[in-house]
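Appendix B. Extra example for self-study. Work through it before the problem class; the solution is given directly after the inputs so you can check yourself.
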Amino acid sequence: MASAATLTGDLSRTSLAVPGMHCAGCMSKVERALGAVPGVASARVNLTARTVTVEHDAELEPRALTEALGGIGFESQARRDLSAKAPSAVRPLLAPLAVAGFAAMNVMLLSVSVWSGAEGSTRELFHWLSALIALPAIAFAGRPFFTSAWRAVKRGTTNMDVPISIGVIVASGLSLYEVVTAGQHAWFDGALMLLTFLLAGRVLDAMMRDRARAGVDALLSQAAQGATVVQPGGTVAWLDAAQLEAGMVMRVAAGERLAADGEIVAGSSRFDQSILTGESAPVSAGVGDKALAGMLNLSAPVDVQVSHAGHDTTLAEIARLMEASTQNRSRYVRIADRAARLYAPAVHTLSAITVIGWLLAGASLYQALVIGVAVLIITCPCALGLAVPVAQVVASGSLMRAGIMVKDGSALERLAGVDRALLDKTGTLTLGRPVPDETVINLFGAEERSVALALASHSTHPLSRGLAKALAARGVEAALLEEIAERPGMGVFARWNGHPVSLRRPDGGKGSAVALSISTSPVRLLPFADALRPDAVEALDKLRALGIDCSILSGDKVAAVEAIGIDLGIATQAQTDPAQKQARVEAERKAGHRVLMVGDGLNDGPALAAANASIAPGSASDVGLQAADMVFVQESLLALPRAVSASRRTMAVVKQNFALAIGYNAFAVPLAVLGHVTPLVAAVAMSASSLLVIANSLRLVGAAR
Amino acid sequence: MNGLLILVPIALLLGLAGLAAFFWALRSGQFDDPAGSASRILIDEDEEGKIP
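Solution. Structure tokens for the complete assembly:
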């Protein structure tokens, strides 16, 4: 089937990804526009996932939906597979957390009564009640740990979940024994609190990881979903991208992206290939020239004979590079995992030695086991489990308020260590949109300005938009024009007071420029430049002060890159393709540097994925956004030093948290080994250490300032 | 002691009711789209052409 459409009775359901939605206004616009399409039964936006689910007649082509959204200015893609959406790691943990929290509170209530002196039958009743609440709750809430521990044990390894599971199960078993034999102590509260704190840590951790989504999917959706194919008889048909084959001829309209690589056989046009190469200026191509999947046809319709389709396209090649690089980075071992690797065997050995020691000292098996469990519970990595996620969640909340979104908690760990930064030029160091030369606009007369604004406002070409924005910012009023016509690839033509006027492509010259021609005055040539982001110089100075070497790594032409490099005083490397960018990152890493890649385009995707840490601006392509660990949404480049220093502060706090957790163990473990720990002491000590770690992490609230 | 026999079950029942409410909310998809739900109250429902 062509899209994500799945048949449910007479209605089909299609899920569309609409990355441009971000507010209530967008939601209602999208839902209303789709509702107006004939055959649509309902449309419901999910703003969190930036998708809209549409129920419609089975005959309705998903393409009609995309076009309806295009009509109101939202780019959208039919999701190829509904099941491709990665399942959230948070939701399965919410129910266990709720149960564990509920049970812990109630059992604690009963335990407090026991500790404050309930005796005899009251204590027995309370213990029985505790057991009644705790056992099913532990069985349910402990499942995430039990299954993970069982998997580890089956493979003959051990992880953090093994001591947790043993501690919880043995504690519950011994407590039950105590209850049945009307003993003094039950440990249910300790076991339940342990589960609650650990699950809270897991949920926070999963929330961080949830934001990272599969980048490769987004990359492949960058290519057009299909193309209009001219068949031998002269008829045209819309074919899905997967059905395209070498030798077919696609008709690509202006404003359409190519779905496959090929050679132009009829017509000529200008193409935006910045997504593939990073080069900012559009490229002209005519009969005989190559055109690649992902390129955007800017001006006139062309016929392209397909040479490579599907997985052979240049675009798919970039996807493969990216996938390979991502696997490379996933070898990075998170601090918490490294700690767990050392921690679990140490705890096991310690409690085993304790049990054996007490047996040798003449204690009964029951006594020795109780003390062994006390050691396991008190060393259980409650505070340790919270040490990393709490700090990361607080820090990324702070960064988010400063306009920097952290997609993966481990990015903070990786970013803290970087000592080399590679920056893309177009769209990263620069704003990625053309800005007209101010000094030339100053030379314009009042009439020229108002005519220029009127002409520019009638086109959606990037240069026109840049000009209209600059003129509107100066308070220029648009002149009244007649007979306005936009000719693709040529410019906007109109009449003003009877004179022909136009804002058009200049006859010659290089770089981006437009010619403003008014028949009564000489033609004006207005050059455009891609402006540097504000605070670029200050941001690079601050990065240097943080001990990070910066250089430019761009796909644009040497001259354009060098000009920026001289302005900023940093080294440059120009005209690199995606594979070269990736190779440069790898080379730096081999040389022992930890690399931060900052980039926005599809061509930066593999490099972003290969670097130790990566940041993309909010204006980046889908692929850039997916591949990067962090995204900054404001224009200023100061976000970079801010993110680096915030991540370094986070790592400092994480290390303090580990020190606190380990210090607590160093203090509590000897007491437990010597058999001095009662349930009250264990519960208080465990909560206190967790709360201490949380309080310490809250100091990061202002980390991004 | 008599007070406890009444109060303890009441406390447990109230807690269970809260837990049940949470599960109901989780099942009925109220945590599916937190960002969208927060924005949706801003949409003016009285406008024409509203989509159910």
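Self-check: The interface with chain B takes residues 23-25, 27-28, 31-32, 34-36, 42-49, 91, 94-95, 98-99, 102, 105-106, 109-110, 122, 129, 133 of chain A (CB under 8 Å). If your reasoning did not lead you there, revisit section 3.
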